[in-house]
Amino acid sequence: MKHALLSVSDKNGLVEFAQGLIERGFELVSTGGTQAVLADAGLTVMGVEDVTGFPEMLDGRVKTLHPRLHAGILARRDSEAHMTALAEHEITPVDLVCVNLYPFAETSHRAGVSQAEVIEQIDIGGPSALRAAAKNSNAVWAVVDPADYPAVLAGIDADDVAMRHELAAKVFRTTAAYDAQIAAYLTQQAFPDTLTPTYVRKQTLRYGENSHQAAAFYAEPYPEATSIAAAKQLHGKELSYNNIKDADAALLTLAEFSEPTVVAMKHMNPCGVGQGETIEAAWDRAYAADSVSIFGGIIALNRTVDLATATKMHELFLEIIIAPDFDDDARDLLAQKKNLRLMTVAMVDHTRQPAHELVSVQGGLLVQDVDQRVETADDLTIVTAVEPTPEQIAAMLFAQRVVKHVKSNAIVVANQGQTLGIGAGQMNRVGSVEIALAQAQQNTNFAGAVLASDAFFPMADSVDYAAKHGIRAIIQPGGSIRDQDSIDKANEYGITMVTTGVRHFRH
What is the arithmetic mean of pLDDT over 106-117? Predict the structure, then answer.
């Protein structure tokens, strides 16, 4: 008779699976709560202590950790020596191990949980039994996921060796991720000597950045609330690789603001950011910031979308609208476009963003602190003879928050609560200034515009160009050996300049 060891924390589908095993000639061996559930269902099941001759102890910490079980799992069926050893010690081979692990990640993310409670959810015997079964997958079924129960029963019927090997690989992925989550919880260093992040496949994508590239989207097991990984799609076709990247960039930008704000994102750069007393007013300003580039864009809003705002967005071709919620009539209107993706995501304070961000490079990974620095009026140093007005300070601080999310070299021209022109990713800074101002000067709100730069001006040419084209206030980090050239140029034109001492590159 074949033997199956069952010890699961997730009891979904357990009884049906166990019944299927019995029908296929398996004798069941089980532990604690699993054994009780099976017995209550009227199934015949042996306790693990009946096999090991040793009772469960230490509040269940020691149950399956016994050579009579592990030898039965690990013995090679094609080895005469192994099978002889089992016979000599009267050990019964174990042909299937079904274990799912203690809910460590769920527990560690539960509000108010103590460290002692989390530590108790570190499974020792479960991973050991699973790994033993997976190592011996030529003969033993290793089952870790209740979703696989029906397929396993069918595989047993067909003696599907390939399936056993696939399940073994899944076991090692699962236990590796499990250990990684434990390591992350216990690790205190910001940058440990080894890094073992773990992700779960959220979806297989139609293609990657281009149609000839295969791709998939993986998410953290418990992603941050305000993230594309945690967002819920209500309507529209499947997200693409580029949609996900743009939506992520839009949410990161939006997280800078608590006032009603709309961010229009295009190719990983904001093309328009607007604020207002209402979300409709914020939309009007974001749209007016660049009514051309917004076509085919991703729109992120930090307030519920009402019908008035939806009506205006409905007139455009947009890829994604993502917000905390949609009024029913607004959703119904927008859903008339079958391909438009409507998504909801929780909006939380930007200071709750993760502490670190990871960026892949060929053969490695870069890890850095998230740029959560937000400058205030107290951080500004006035370096020119002309001092900024309160209105200019407010506009500069707004532009400074946006420029953090524009690809360097980055320039943002804005007034208070509205971007007017954005220059992104140019190989020289004056090029970004020219692009931003060319766009900004088309806006009816250009008078009194300010300019923000993500880094210092290495030459006075950017200030010269900006002043000649209507800019009256500039915010920049400072720190160049030629700072004085830019300051002198600003004084020459009678405009104000402030420095922050903080650079906001985003490559």
Answer: 89
Rg (CA), the chain: 30
**Cβ–Cβ < 8 Å for 195, 367:** yes
Instruction: Say yes or no to pLDDT of 63 above 80.
Output: no
- Give me the active site residues, please: 135, 267
Q: What are the tokens at 182?
A: 């434990």
Query: H helices of 297-409, where?
Result: 307-314, 328-334, 390-403
pLDDT surpasses 80 at 390: yes
DSSP H helical ranges for 279-428: 279-289, 307-314, 328-334, 390-403
Which residues lie below 8 Å from residue 292, measured CB to CB, with a gap of 6+? none
Q: Which residues pair with 201 in a beta bridge?
A: 218
Mean pLDDT of 244-273: 95
| pLDDT digit string, tens, across residues 325-356 | 999 999 999 999 999 999 999 987 655 566 78
Beta-bridge partners for 413: 421, 451
Smallest CA-to-CA distance from 412 within 372, 378, 443, 380 is with 443
Tokens (6 digits) for 362: 């060929």
CB atoms within 10 A of CB 493: 15
pLDDT on residue 60:
65
Which residues, 6+ apart, have CB-to-CB distance to 328 below 8 Å?
none
Amino acid letter, residue 37: V
Task: Give residue for tokens 């989550």.
Answer: 181
N- to C-terminal Cα separation, the chain: 63
Residue 219 · residue 229 · CB < 8 Å: yes
Task: Name every residue whose Cβ is closer than 8 Å to that of residue 309 and which is 6 or more positions away in sequence.
Answer: 279, 280, 283, 301, 330
Angstrom distance (rounded) from CA 439 to CA 183: 49
pLDDT over threshold 80, residue 185: yes
208-220 b/e (C-beta count within 10 Å ≥ 16 → b): eeeeeeebebeeb
- Residues 286-298, mean pLDDT to the nearest whole number: 96
Cα 46 to Cα 35: distance, rounded to the nearest angstrom? 8
- DSSP letter, residue 502: -
Q: Which of 195-199, 393-397, 445-449 has the largest mean confidence? A: 393-397
pLDDT, tens digit, 9 for 90 and up, residues 78-96: 888 888 888 888 888 999 9
